[in-house]
Write a structure and sequence with these properties.
Blueprint (H helix, E strand, L loop, with lengths): L17 E6 L2 E5 L4 E3 L4 E2 L3 E5 L5 E8 L6 E4 L2 E2 L2 H18 L4 E8 L10 H16 L5 H9 L13 E5 L8 E4 L8 E6 L10 H11 L3 H21 L2 H20 L10 H15 L4 E5 L5 E6 L3 H11 L5 E4 L6 E3 L5
Parallel strand pairs: 7-9
Antiparallel strand pairs: 1-6, 1-16, 2-5, 3-4, 5-10, 6-9, 7-8, 10-11, 12-14, 12-15, 13-14
Bound molecules: ligand DP6.
The site of ligand DP6 has 15 residues, from helix 4.
Length: about 350
C-alpha cells in the first residue's frame, strides 16, 4: 500500500482521438476547505485522502472535429446547464493546451447511487482529465494529470492516485498537485459510509468554503492546525497506526465543521441524524472497537475502522442511520486509461 507505482499510463506521442478512463472517489482524512485562488483552484491548505474501491466513474472522450459544440452524456442522458457547462469549460482548458479547436463527445457513466453522499466530482474530473488528455494528445504524466484534474474540482487532483494521496497546496499552477503518500501495509483500513440524507445539499461546497474563508474567525486557526494534522497524519500512516490516523482525521474534520458553524451566516451540514451516527461511533469506541468519523460538505458520515471490524461497524451505524444506506469501502486504485474492450 502507499507509494505504489501508478497504474496510469498514457501515450505521450500523439492524440488518440478517442480514449476511455476510469477513476474512483476519494475521501479526505485531512480536508481541503478554502481556496487561495479560485480561478486556478489553488487550495489554502495541503490535504490528504484515501481513494475508495467503490463507485467508479468511467468516461469516454471522442473528438468530433465537425461538431459545433461539445456533447455531454451523463448516465445515458444528454446533459445541459451547469454540469455540461463545467465539462465544456474544462475541455476548453485541454484544447488550449493541446492547440486544438476540436469539439468532443463526452460520455460518462457514474456508478455512485444517486444521493449516496459521495461527491462524484472527484472521480468525474479525474476520469475526464485522463481520458481528455489521451484523446487530445496532452502530457500523460501523473503530475500533469493531477494538476489538470484540479482545475475541474480541487479534490479530483487526489483521485489520480491509489490508496493515500497528499495534495500540495502550492503557490501556482505548477506547484499545486497531488502525489501518492507512503503508508504501512499493516494499516488495512475500511471506510464505512453511512448515508443519512440523500437529498441535494443546500449550500454547495464551493460557496460554503468561500464564505467560511471570508467570514469565519475560526478559519485561520483551523488552517494552521491542519498543517500540524497533516504531518502527524503522514507519520501515523507510515507507522501503520490506524488509531492515530482515525483520531487525527476526526479532529481535522470536526475542526473544519466548526469553522463553518462560525461563518456568517453559519453553514451547517450536519443533521440530527448525523449526530446520532456520531454517537453510535462513540459507543463503538467505548466497546473497544477502533472507529473514527469524518464528514464532508453534507450530513453523511464516513467511519474509518479496521477492515476486520467493518461489518460490525456497518451494522451499528446502519441502525443509527435511520434507514439510510451503508456502504463499505477499502483503499482503491488510481485513475487509468481503459483499453476499449474493458468498457
Ligand atoms: C469537504 O473539491 O468539491 O470534500 O474545488 O470547489 O470543486 P471544488 O470543491 P470540492 O471540495 C471538496 C471539499 C471536501 C473536503 C475534501 O475533499 O478535501
Amino acid at each position: 500500500m502507499g507509494a505504489e507505482p501508478l497504474t496510469t499510463t498514457l501515450p505521450r506521442e500523439r492524440a488518440t482521438g478517442t480514449a476511455t478512463a476510469v477513476a474512483h472517489p476519494n475521501i479526505a482524512l485531512i480536508k481541503y476547505w478554502g481556496k487561495s485562488d479560485e480561478t486556478l483552484f489553488l487550495p489554502r491548505t495541503d490535504s490528504l485522502s484515501m481513494t475508495l474501491d467503490i463507485f467508479p466513474t468511467t468516461t469516454r472522450v471522442r473528438l468530433a472535429p465537425a461538431a459545433g459544440e461539445d456533447t455531454v452524456v451523463f448516465n445515458g442522458e444528454h446533459a445541459t446547464g451547469e454540469p455540461a457547462h463545467r465539462i465544456t469549460a474544462f475541455l476548453d482548458l485541454v484544447r488550449e493546451r493541446a492547440g486544438s479547436t476540436d469539439r468532443a463527445v463526452v460520455d460518462t457513466v457514474n456508478t455512485v447511487p444517486t444521493g449516496a453522499g459521495l461527491a462524484s466530482s472527484a472521480s468525474g474530473f479525474a476520469a475526464l482529465a485522463v481520458a481528455a488528455s489521451a484523446a487530445y494528445g496532452l502530457d500523460g504524466d501523473p503530475r500533469a494529470l493531477s494538476r489538470l484534474a484540479r482545475r475541474g474540482s480541487g479534490s479530483a487532483s487526489r483521485s489520480l492516485f491509489a490508496d493515500f494521496a497528499v495534495w500540495h497546496a502550492g503557490t501556482d499552477d505548477l506547484s499545486s498537485y497531488a502525489e501518492p503518500v507512503e503508508a504501512s501495509a499493516d494499516l488495512d483500513p475500511a471506510l464505512v459510509v453511512a448515508v443519512v440524507n440523500a437529498g441535494p445539499k443546500e449550500v454547495s461546497s464551493r460557496t460554503a468554503m468561500r464564505r467560511t474563508m471570508d467570514t469565519s474567525p475560526l478559519y485561520e486557526p483551523w488552517a494552521l492546525s491542519s498543517a500540524a494534522d497533516l504531518s502527524d497524519m503522514r507519520a501515523a500512516l507510515v507507522r501503520g497506526d490506524l488509531a492515530a490516523v482515525g483520531e487525527i482525521a476526526e479532529r481535522n474534520a470536526l475542526g473544519m465543521h466548526a469553522t463553518m458553524l462560525a461563518a456568517r451566516p453559519a453553514v451547517r451540514y450536519l443533521s440530527p441524524a448525523s449526530l446520532t451516527v456520531l454517537d453510535s461511533v462513540l459507543e463503538l469506541r467505548r466497546a473497544g472497537v477502533l472507529a473514527h468519523v469524518t464528514m464532508d460538505a453534507g450530513p453523511n458520515v464516513k467511519v474509518l475502522c479496521r477492515r476486520a471490524d467493518a461489518d460490525r461497524v456497518a451494522a451499528t451505524v446502519r441502525a443509527a442511520a435511520q434507514g439510510g444506506a451503508v456502504h463499505i469501502a477499502g483503499p482503491g486504485p488510481g485513475a487509468r486509461l481503459l483499453i476499449e474492450d474493458e468498457r
